[in-house]
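Write out a record, focusing on structure:
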Amino acid sequence: MNIDTALANVDALSQPQAAALTTALIARHKLLKDQHAARITALVTVGSTVKIRDNMRPRTLCGLVGVVRSMNGKAAEITLDERSAAEHRQQQLDGIPLAALEALDSAQSFAQVVDFFLNHATIEDLTTLNGARKRRIEALASGLTTGDQVVVIDVRPKFLAGLIGAVASVNKTDRTCEVLLDEASTDRVRWLRSPKYTVADTTKRYPLRLRFTQVLITGRG
C-alpha cells in the first residue's frame, strides 16, 4: 500500500475506526523515533570518533569530540581530542550515555549493515546474522597475544563489561586468556564489593580469566 491508497482507505473509515487509528499513529511515531535513536547509538564503537549530542546534560558537555576508549552497552569512556580537552579542562570523560553520542567516522559498509538490522531483518535473518557476527568475533580474536590491550565485552556479570586491561597470558587450547585490569578498572571492581570478585586493598591490577570472545582488542602488545 502507498500513501495515496492509504488516504483513500482513511476517507472510507467509520468514526470509531478513524479514532482507533490514533493508537497506530502514536505507535508508528514512537517506532520511527526509536529506530532513529537506535541507529545513532549502534554506530558508536570502541575506537570510533564521537561527538556529544545536544541531548546531553549538563549542556557544557555538548559538542565535545573524542575517541571511545571503552563502553559497556549503556555508557562509554571517552578520551577527548586536544581542542575539547582544553575547552573542558579534562581529557577523560566516563559514564557518557551511548544515547548522547554520535559517531563521526562510521564506515559506509558498517552503517549499511546497521540499517539492515534495524529496518529490514526478519527474526530468521537476525538469527543468521548473529551467528555470523559471533564467528567474525571468534576469527578476529584468534590473533590474541600477550601484551595486547583489551576491553571486556559480552560477559556475565554485566558490570565487568567495559573494563580495560592487558593480556597477561594466552591459552590457545581452551581459547582463554588472563587479563590484568588497569588500575582504574581494578578500582571499579573493588568498589562493587562483589563476593565473587574480591579485590584486596593492596591489589593494583586485578586478574580476570576470560574467553577469547569476551575481549575486544584495542591495541597490540
